[in-house]
Amino acid sequence: MSDHNSLLTFSLKLLDALANSNRGLQGLVDIGYSVLENPIMITDKNWRAIALTMVEIPDDTGWNELLINGLLSPELVSAGIRENLVDRIEQSEGPFKCQYSSMKYSRLFNKVVINGKSVATVSVIEYNRPFKDIDFSLVKILSDSIATEMQKDQFQQFTRGMQFEQLIENLLERRLKDPKVIEERVNLLNIGIKKNIYVFVFDVSEFDSKKFSLSYMRDTLEKMISGGKALIYDNKIVITASFSRTQDILKTELINLSAFLKKNNIRCGISRRCTQLAELRFYYDQALDALRVGTYMDRERYIYPYGEYAVYHIAEACSEAGGSKVFSHPALEVLMAYDKEYNTTFTNSLYEYLIHFKNISNTAKALHLHRNTLIYHLQRIEEIMEVSLSDYHTIQLLELSFRLLEYDKKITPRFFWNTINNEKENNKKD
Fold first, then answer.
1. CATH top-level class for 321-429?
2. CATH assignment of 173-317, among 1.10.10, 3.30.450, 3.10.350, 3.30.70
3. Neighbour-count burial for 252-269, b at 16+ CB within 10 Å, e otherwise
């Protein structure tokens, strides 16, 4: 078949798909694959896969990231920026072939243009067969057909996305309060909100925006949190994530998220569980509080769940009214002075005893002390402080006192929540 006939046949197939098929962009990609005989992908401006040939290419990292995750890694995007791939796609008037250091195989690239604006990129990977001269014309025809198809369903997708963002913004601005109206909006958008909702607020003020766009980072973070939906609000990235069970959050995915945030100098506050969208603003503020207090308390961490920092939020309020000097148990100062004078460690013993919920065995283990030695320490602590460690109110005030001292940076913080949870996990393994 001549090149002219091939172009005509391909064009007719695409026109038929545009007119009669309901398979959308994926249908065009499938037709393109049957003619070009090489895998094809369509990516948006944030290098997120819109449609692609479902073929695995074992030795091409970029392709498989899109196939599995639907999004290129920040490392590959950064490499494309460094090697001027993004600029070249934008500036090119037609398809071009290239192979960069981050690519295993050569590719044909062409931008998808709607109303004079580049909205997506078509790329064909030279995997099954070498490129032919006619492939450049075929990719141009495919790109034009994709632009036509995108204009058909773009409005619905765009509208739904905008409606979701508008819904969340209305909730954050407290313009929507009626639970029935909110439920109707959610059902209309078919968002799939579950009972357990968490608000993630990401501080991107120290993020290198020259490396990645804010919108790209928004989409990347959204991918990393299952059930998450993201938007940019008040110069921050906000993700609302819903889960079937409360234990579905704060697991393995947060470990991966923390590593990613550290690498990109982004910090995240996480609210407690929200069960009513009407209360979303309250939990957004809670995530902000966790972010602010957590950043102040521990800059070595990058994720701050409010549950771990709530007591320090209280300490923040107390600090504004005088801090540990006003609200701490006066006997604690006596104990600390005794330790300083006699070079003892009773304050630390008391601290560990409290954070281990007054469990003698666990405290002794943490302090590397014999059980009887710890019991003696506790007796001496009661004598020095002239208090009873069996008194509920005393224990409460002492716990708060330690948190106030931590917040005032008079002692080193001990984030006991993770410590206790880690111990429980280790015990399960044993």
1. mainly alpha
2. 3.30.70
3. eebeebeebbeebebbbb
Q: What is the per-residue pLDDT across 39-95, written as a single tens digit (0 to 9) for each?
A: 999 988 777 788 888 888 888 878 887 777 777 777 777 777 777 888 888 888 899
> Rounded to an integer, what distance in angstroms lies between the CA atom of residue 282 and that of residue 274?
9
Radius of gyration of the chain (CA): 29
What digits encode the pLDDT tens for the residues 371-406? 999 999 999 999 999 999 999 999 999 999 999 988
Tell me the residue type at 102. S
Q: What is the DSSP annotation of 57-68?
A: -TT-HHHHHHHH
Q: Are 97 and 108 in contact (CB under 8 A)?
A: yes
Q: Are 202 and 266 in contact (CB under 8 A)?
A: yes
Element (DSSP H or E) covering residue 300: none
Give 333-369 pLDDT, tens digit per residue: 999 999 999 999 999 999 999 999 999 999 999 999 9
Domains of the chain, residue spans: 3-157, 173-317, 321-429
Q: Reply yes or no on whether the pLDDT at 155 is more than 60.
A: no
User: What does pTM read for this prediction?
Assistant: 0.63
What would the CATH number be for the domain defined by 3-157? 3.30.450.40
Residue 58, token pair as written in the block: 């074992």
The phi, psi pair for 341, rounded to 5°, reads -75, -40
